[in-house]
């Protein structure tokens, strides 16, 4: 085992880590936004649009992320979609995450008691303010654990972006290992690193969850 | 422009490669079921050491991306002097990764059984071993079936990563096909169709099982 390579390649790895975090945060935010729009369109949109979105959800959830990236990055230019690796990766991550987020939002909305919405309608609230003041706040709170959970899963999916040459952490580690022939050490450290990262994020997520849902916990 | 003949022609070689996708995910889940049962037994055991081992096993395998696990295994085996075919190494890695999720599925299913069931069995004088084999396990296995099909769908998709260590499954075959035809869009879309077909079948089985298990 040889550890000095990490010192030499430190700055490069750090940059890769920055891009990993960037991809994760952007992918989560954009995927959530798209997922929320899909969930709302599925609830209020016309029937053909709902069918179309359901097909989109099935297709994206039924195909591997790697194949989706290949279609986007290598197939895209054939239909005029010419993207660099990083934007292609971000777009891919957004598309990949959106149906999962949409389903999470849908179940969150379904968990809002019907009586709440009926009551809002009965006192003459406009449909838009029902969404904004009743459906979203109540639905988001009940969807929160699943949202946090899927965001953590997305952290791990970012390594797949290395295959289409997004210069994130995994990409830099592979580069380092091909230049120094330290494959085992490099991947070992990478595994430990991701373990730590995912554990840390899960812990933060749990704390965030208990904070937001504090009003739901019955005090004894 | 989009070439429909190329799209249709790529189905031939890709469908051949689908055997390996099915093999890796099928054997992966089989291995995952065995190891997952052992890990689940550790997690539920009275010994604190075994419980801690199970907790670390699950948290490590769920916290590390599968791609990293595959590469780690790929480079680790030669160093410790084990030489097995790449396919076997891939199946073992996928199986080990799946075991973490499967052990959690089973732990959840066993935990979801009403405690009254085993209490009643105890009250009529059943031996602890018999309670497990006759009361707890049969119900827990039936309850976990939909979740296991779900896990299998995830594995079919995860098996695309196995292409990175040189297994000629659908994704690898489509890379080769795209390189020879210079039509990546058609070929990768065909690959997506194959995965989608497999997973829609599995999802159908899952819904059917869920329907059966609900009775």
Summarize the structure in words:
Chain A is built from 9 helices and no strands. In chain A, 80% of the residues lie in helices and 0% in strands. In chain A, α2 (10-44) runs antiparallel to α3. By secondary structure, chain A is mainly α. Chain B is mainly alpha-helical. Chain B has one domain (4-214): MetI-like (MetI-like fold), CATH 1.10.3720.10. Chain B is built from 9 helices and no strands. Chain B: Belongs to the binding-protein-dependent transport system permease family. HisMQ subfamily.
Summarize the structure.
Chain A has helices at 4-8, 10-44, 47-62, 65-75, 85-110, 114-122, 127-157, 169-180, 183-212. Chain A has 220 residues and is mainly alpha-helical.
**Topology of chain B as a string of helices (H) and strands (E):** HHHHHHHHH
Proportion of beta-strand residues of chain B: under 5%
- Please tally the helical runs of chain B, counting DSSP H or I stretches of 4 or more residues: 9
Overall structural class of chain A, as computed from helix and strand content, comes to: mainly alpha
* Cα-atom radius of gyration of chain A: 21 Å
Poorly predicted regions of chain A: none
Shape of chain A: flat
Number of helices of chain A: 9
End-to-end separation of chain B: 51 Å
CATH superfamily of chain B: MetI-like
- Seen as an oligomer or otherwise, the chain set is heterodimer
Mean pLDDT over the residues of chain A: 89
The domain count of chain B comes to 1
Helix content of chain A: over 70%
SS-based structural class of chain B? Answer: mainly alpha
Radius of gyration of chain B (Å):
21 Å
Determine the most extensive contact between two protein chains. Answer: A-B, 36 and 43 residues
Q: Report the top-level CATH class of chain B.
A: Mainly Alpha
Main sheet record of chain B = none
């Amino acid at each position: 085992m040889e550890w000095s390579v990490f010192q030499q390649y430190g700055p490069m790895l750090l940059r890769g880590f920055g891009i990993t975090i960037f991809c994760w945060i952007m992918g989560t935010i954009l995927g959530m936004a798209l997922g929320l729009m899909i969930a709302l369109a599925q609830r209020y949109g016309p029937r053909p649009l709902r069918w179309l979105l359901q097909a989109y959800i099935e297709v994206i959830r039924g195909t591997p992320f790697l194949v989706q990236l290949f279609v986007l990055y290598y197939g895209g230019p054939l239909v005029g979609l010419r993207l660099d690796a990083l934007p292609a990766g971000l777009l891919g991550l957004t598309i990949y995450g959106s149906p999962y987020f949409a389903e999470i939002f849908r179940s969150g909305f379904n968990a809002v008691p019907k009586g709440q919405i009926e009551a809002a309608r009965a006192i003459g609230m406009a449909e838009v303010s029902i969404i904004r003041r009743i459906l979203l706040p109540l639905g988001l709170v009940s969807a929160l654990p699943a949202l946090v959970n899927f965001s953590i899963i997305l952290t791990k999916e970012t390594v797949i972006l290395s295959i289409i040459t997004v210069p994130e952490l995994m990409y830099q580690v592979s580069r380092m290992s091909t230049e120094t022939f330290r494959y085992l050490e490099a991947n070992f450290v990478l595994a430990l690193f991701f373990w730590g990262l995912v554990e840390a994020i899960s812990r933060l997520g749990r704390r965030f969850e208990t904070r937001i849902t504090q009003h739901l916990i019955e005090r004894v | 422009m989009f070439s429909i003949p190329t799209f249709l022609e790529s189905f031939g070689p890709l469908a051949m490669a689908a055997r390996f996708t099915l093999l890796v995910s099928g054997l992966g889940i089989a291995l995952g079921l065995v190891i997952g049962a052992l890990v689940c037994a550790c997690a539920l055991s009275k010994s604190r050491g075994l419980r801690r081992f199970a907790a670390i096993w699950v948290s490590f395998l769920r916290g590390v991306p599968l791609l990293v696990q595959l590469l780690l295994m790929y480079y680790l085996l030669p160093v410790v002097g084990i030489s097995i075919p790449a396919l076997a190494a891939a199946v073992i890695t996928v199986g080990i990764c799946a075991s973490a999720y499967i052990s959690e599925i089973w732990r959840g299913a066993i935990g979801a059984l009403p405690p009254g069931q085993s209490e009643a069995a105890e009250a009529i004088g059943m031996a602890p071993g018999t309670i497990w084999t006759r009361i707890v396990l049969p119900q827990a296995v039936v309850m976990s079936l939909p979740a296991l099909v779900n896990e299998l769908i995830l594995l079919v998709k995860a098996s695309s990563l196995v292409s990175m260590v040189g297994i000629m499954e659908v994704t690898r075959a489509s890379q080769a096909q795209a390189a020879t035809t210079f039509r990546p869009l058609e070929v990768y879309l065909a690959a997506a169709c194959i995965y989608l077909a497999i997973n829609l079948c599995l999802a159908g089985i899952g819904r059917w099982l869920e329907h059966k298990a609900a009775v």
